[in-house]
Amino acid sequence: MKLPNFPLEIPEHPLSIAIDGTVPLLFKSDKGHMGIALTDPDEFYELGKGLTPIDPMLTGSDYYTEEYNFVHAIARQSEIYSTAVKNAYDTGKNIIAGNVYSPNTLSQKLKLVSSLIAGGLKTKVYYMKISNFDSHAQQANADFSGQHFTLLNDVARAITEFMEDAALTGFSERVTGMTISEFGRRTYENGSRGTDHGAASMQFIWGNDSYVNGGYWNNRPNLSDLDINGNVKYQTDYRVIYTEMLEKRFDATTDEITQVFGESFLPLNILEKRTSSVEEYLKPRNGEFVRSFPNPSQGSGVVSFDMYNPGRAIVNIYNVNGKEELTLHSGYLQPGYYEMPYRLNKSGTYICCVSVGKKRYNTKFVVIK
């Protein structure tokens, strides 16, 4: 969704909603807040009611006019969104009535989200948080009790209840969830039945089985093979997961994702796109859209492909962790056969990706030095 005049011009429904008392950093940008925060739709409606100014926006480009129009837009936006949220909630809570949710905090937040979705709110992103993971003692006991056991059990129960509700109500194919955290954990116990902050962590992605490729991705962590600081060695850059979500759920292009992160990352293909284009940009040869030869190579080789339809193409080589190593091409290509040489200095497994439009074509190859 392109919003060149945001926040003076806003979409019909909020872009994102935090089920929380404050707008998270995730929703903030140089254009202002890209979402709203609420905990109770009825209270939110009362706060926004009657805020739309009677006087119209001003015309001009001076500082006073810009500030006045900004405040005007926020006030108008508050009433529009508080009404939209209230209407959706009133409709949705009746639709999901009878579906079971536990009393724990996360379950109740997801119940509210379910009501808003079922009620027809078109918000793209919902944000919730569960606290108390930032502890260092009494996290786990030998009998599978303790603080972390309880917290993870609450998370699992809440997600299960939400997805069961989504299946019953009929919106399970429209939702994908992801867990995030700003820190991981060490592997060793710190003397108080707890662990301290670490560098690597696990992430969970969940949704309808038709659109989320379930399972355990990458290798299981080696808990005895740690880095010099005692941290588990990470296998996947977290930006790979975010790239996956931006590309598969928000239709972001490779260029747009590179603008966000400052460099390019290759998604893991955990998610399936809900809609797929019938148009192909590359023509397969012997069943392959992209080829690398020789394979294995000693560090020098050629990537080849046939352009079937013209388009802007980006040809990147990534390491096995999904981080970009080389850019072989970035620009418009006419239909035709292309060979692009590469040179790599380290042994390992690599992935060449040709991105055209919103499609990616990959091939894997090995370098032995």
How would you describe this structure to a colleague?
- With 369 residues, the protein is α+β, with helices and mostly antiparallel strands.
- Among the domains are: 1-129, no CATH class; 282-367, Immunoglobulin-like (Sandwich), CATH 2.60.40.1930.
- Helices cover 27% and strands 22% of the residues.
- The chain has six helices and 17 strands.
- The protein has helices at 41-48, 63-95, 105-118, 147-169, 238-250, 254-261; strands at 16-19, 28-29, 32-33, 36-38, 125-127, 176-178, 184-185, 197-198, 205-207, 282-283, 290-293, 300-307, 311-319, 324-333, 336-343, 348-356, 359-367.
- Strands 10, 11, 12 and 15 form a four-stranded antiparallel sheet that branches. Strands 14-13-16-17 form a four-stranded antiparallel sheet, with no helix packed on it. A three-stranded parallel sheet has the order 4-1-5, with helices on one face.
- Strand 16 and strand 17 form a beta hairpin.
- Helix 1 (41-48) packs antiparallel against helix 2 (63-95), helix 2 crosses helix 3 and helix 3 (105-118) packs parallel to helix 4 (147-169).
- The longest helix is centred in the first third of the chain and has 33 residues, at 63-95.
- It starts with 15 loop residues before the first strand and ends with a strand.
- The model has no long low-confidence stretch (mean pLDDT 89).
| Low-confidence residue ranges | none
Distance between the termini: 46 Å
The helix/strand class is: alpha+beta
Shape: globular
Number of helices: 6
How do the helices and strands follow one another from N- to C-terminus? EEEEHHHEHEEEEHHEEEEEEEE
Strand content: 15-25%
| Beta strand count | 17
Mean pLDDT: 89
Approximately how much helix is present in the residues?
25-40%
Biggest sheet record: 4 strands, antiparallel
Radius of gyration using CA atoms only: 24 Å
